[in-house]
Amino acid sequence: MSVMIILIIVSILVALGFLLAFLWNVKSGQYDDDYTPSIRVLFEDESKSLSSTNNNQNKS
Amino acid sequence: MWRHFFCKTLNIKVINSLSCFHCGDSCNNTIRIDQKYFCCNGCQQVYLLLNENNLCQYYNIHQNPGIKAKGRFTKNQYDYLNTEEIINKLVLFKSNDQVNIKFHLPQIHCSSCIFLLEHLHQIHEGIVSSQIHFQKKEIFIIYNPKEIKLSEVVELLAFVGYEPIITLHEIEQKHSTNYNKIRLYKIGIAGFCFANIMMLSFPEYFSSGNIETTALQKTFSWIIFGLSIPVLFYCASEFFISAFNGLKQKILNIDTPIALAILVTFLRSYYEIISGFGAGFLDSGSGIVFFMLIGRWFQNKTYDAFSFDRNYSSYFPLGVSVISNDEEKSIPITQLKKGYKILIRNEELIPTDSILLSSTANIDYSFVTGENELVHQQSGALIYAGGKNSGTAITLETIHEVSQSYFTQLWNNDAFKMNKNKDQSFIHPWSKYFTIVLFSIAALSTMYWYIVDTNKMWNALTAILIVACPCSLLLSATFTYGNMLRYFGRHKFFLKNSSVIESLAKAKTIVFDKTGTLTNSNNIHIKYQGQNLNNDLRIAIKLLCSQSSHPLSKIITKSIQLKISSNFSLTSFKEINGLGIEGMINEDYVRIGSSEFLNLDTNHKKQTTTTVYIEVNDKYIGEFVFETNYRLGVKNLIKSLQKSKYKLHMLSGDNNAEENRLSQLFNFHSNLNFNQSPQDKLNYIQQLQQNSSVIMLGDGLNDAGALKQSDVGIAVTENTNRFSPACDALLAGDKLYLLHQFIKYAKSGKTIITASFILSILYNIIGLSFAVQSLLSPMIAAILMPLSSISIVLFVGLLTNIYAQKILNTNY
Asked: ipTM of this model?
């Protein structure tokens, strides 16, 4: 039964890791702007336009 | 937010001219590429640039998204940005290869803007990346200083139409973002602790209090204890601080019962754990904190969504005359941009900070400072927004766009407060007693359970303290009126603040002005009678009339189709409100106005029309006769108002030529008064106010005093720039026919508030009845409380919407 203690401690540590990751995220400003990314998603593929830019540059 | 993407309303105009592919302005067919037309070289250049770099998706995302390129900026305008000192002041980070900088771009208005601005790196390789924050209208750019200079970055932005506002002292809004972050920290930590405490409490639940190995039980208890400490001291701190601040001021606010509930739960649990009596209720306690924090966060999101619109889409129905290519055009002030040349006539408001281009001007800053003394300015001086031009018409060049919030602030400023709407909301006294009643209920039921069954006591106490929500008392009025102001605004009825809504609903008497209010100033036919006018005289009349913003002057100005040549000069111009204008043009002393103004004896002529007389060098020359055109829908409006038993009056500064027509219009049922001076009108309103509250509608020119005196003064505007701060609301002339519907909507406000009030009381009664019987777990109570306030907000929003559809959108 004493293994329970170890298991609990480990699980709390893992959960703590996730909490710290969340706090780090908030601190780095990921949640500051929750509106613009929703618009950004709707733009067309970057890769498509990049490859056509490459073609343009090759031609010019 | 979604409103931004329907920002170009469905204006189905008959397109006689082509519209520019880039910015949507009208254009002729001279500048074109393939099948696309452009209004100017600037727009064409931007299109070519985007086309070259494969960014034409810009045009697909949103129609005519472009902002008209000014094109006039000189190449060296931004050179000052290359000095070391300035760069250091502006940038956020600097190294040899990378510079980070943030700019404020107020022109961002749609998804195409985001697309274009985030693909700047495709236009110039020196720009590494750019990111937009749409709500703050900011762009964050990372560029390589070796490949592009700061001045070139700004030039590029200006070229595509997004000229940044560069201020050397940044007033950062760090405050609000930090507060949001702290809230998220608290929610994160509370969630972590709550979940783990619950998990560690399972053994307690499942073994119904008898864990075999006491060592394990002790360990669990102490780990739970440890996890609960950050919850109590960090996450719940805002409740304690707020309650404490309230107590210091001897006020019991909403946070007091919550703080008390949390304190009770935690302390009781700590006592039980330390003394070994039990396991405490820390899972419940931390759950309370967690759910309350989430509830608050969610509430704020909902509030923000509702208040956002008012600032960004407020409709301030004023217009301004813009001069471009020697042509004068009238546009709404919301479309005014930097660098526009505007023409401001006598008595018109200056919409935004500008530089004076005319040689001199006299500005009345009473709107801004309350001082009536005129300030004399020379060419080149800075004229501030809110000033009123007094004298001849002046031209100015704008420096900024118009800030509508600034105007609304000035409007509500103390300089003009007459303390008209003093009646306190009937809600205030309630909130004071609410908490006292709540505490007494809590105390009574605690005592009851102490005697009957102590186990249930704690549950009952905490649940009672949490479940009671006075939110409706505080929220409903604010949200209802806030929403209604928005709906009014959408129909071009702009109210100063929410107390005007209450006054609108209360009024029983309505007074109309005639000229400009009941009558339409557009499409009026004008006839000239009298001596033949040669061209010189015509130009002189036009020059004099073009200085004034009175509707009749404007019509005369428009009717004379001659150009004012530069050898005509105007001096000593004077306009007497409601009577006429006069001035010296070259050598002649010209006076134009009503018959009293010119001291003409017109008794022998029957007054059948609105007439403006002209006198040159004290000799009567002739007169302009105006046909009166009444606005569409006025007859029906009057009929429906009379049916609802409103007392209608009409005051006009004009003669009684229109008496017959007006009597018919008013169904012979109302008081019509003519030849009223501004003072007469004021006295009349004062007399009416002895019996009931009065709504007055006027054009704000010669009835400013009456508008101020009445309980609700509505200025009816026709894309003019005349703004009397004494008025309480602005109504666009073409929406006058909706007046009765506006009043009905205002009345529905009280109904909505009462309904939400009842809803909230019902909620409280039901919740408390369960809590008092100790049937409600404190955790469920913690979820229900924010849920209730959100539901009240949604309920109020829904009702205002439904009433708006029903009342404001029905066709008459």
From this structure: 0.76
